[in-house]
């Protein structure tokens, strides 16, 4: 948010982890991050890495250790749920741990995201269903089973 005009991360810079994320997916992601090439200034981010299965986490740590020996100028951020800080990945990378709390007010965060996710030219796109021609939206309900 310090550079409002800088674009959001591209699809190849972010890995959204779930319990079903495979070792192959994590391996491809780590190779993009850690193998020296013309990456530019990308910052690679693994979201919810604490949700990876034990086997996938072990293989990811091994691959990371092997690849990071060849490259000391990578940019990798691993985000985990603080309630699962004792799972494999947060424990394996605990020496790099930094506890973070969002430092910006919610309204400022929303404004930043609106700047990046608004459709520039209103058209007959799916963005017309969301408020203010946003190309993303969140639909939620406090009640379960209401079809959302």
Detailed description of the structure:
By secondary structure, the chain is an alpha/beta fold. It has two domains: 1-103, no CATH class; 104-147, no CATH class. Helices cover 30% and strands 7% of the residues. It has four helices and three strands, in the order E-H-E-H-E-H-H. It has helices spanning 23-34, 54-68, 88-92, 106-117, and strands at residues 14-16, 44-47, 76-79. It has a three-stranded parallel sheet with strand order 1-2-3, covered by helices on one side. Helix 1 runs parallel beside helix 2. The longest helix is centred in the middle third of the chain and has 15 residues, at 54-68. The radius of gyration is 18 Å and the shape is globular.
Q: What labels would you give this structure?
A:
alpha/beta, single chain, 2 domains, 148 residues
Low-pLDDT segments, ≥5 res: none
User: How many helical stretches?
Assistant: 4
Oligomeric state, counting identical vs distinct chains? single chain
Number of domains: 2
Work out the strand percent. Answer: 5-15%
Spatial gap, N to C terminus: 31 Å
What is the helical fraction, as a range of percent? 25-40%
Global outline: globular
Largest sheet, in brief, is: 3 strands, parallel
Q: Which structural category do the helix and sheet elements fall into? A: alpha/beta
Rg calculated over all Cα atoms: 18 Å
Give me the count of strands: 3
What's the pLDDT, averaged over the residues?
82
Order of helices and strands: EHEHEHH
Provide the spatial order of strands within the biggest beta sheet: 1-2-3
């Amino acid at each position: 948010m310090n550079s409002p005009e800088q674009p959001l991360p591209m699809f190849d810079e972010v890995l959204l982890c779930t319990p079903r994320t495979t070792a192959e997916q994590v391996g491809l992601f780590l190779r993009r991050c850690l193998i020296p090439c013309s990456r530019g200034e990308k910052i690679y981010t693994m979201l919810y890495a604490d949700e990876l299965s034990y086997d996938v986490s072990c293989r990811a740590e091994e691959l990371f250790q092997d690849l990071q020996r060849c490259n000391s100028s990578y940019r990798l951020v691993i985000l985990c749920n603080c309630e699962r800080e004792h799972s494999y990945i947060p424990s394996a990378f605990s020496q790099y741990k930094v506890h973070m709390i969002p430092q910006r007010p919610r309204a400022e965060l929303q404004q930043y995201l609106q700047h990046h996710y608004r459709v520039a030219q209103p058209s007959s796109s799916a963005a017309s269903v969301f408020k203010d021609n946003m190309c993303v939206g969140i639909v939620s309900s406090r009640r379960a089973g209401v079809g959302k």
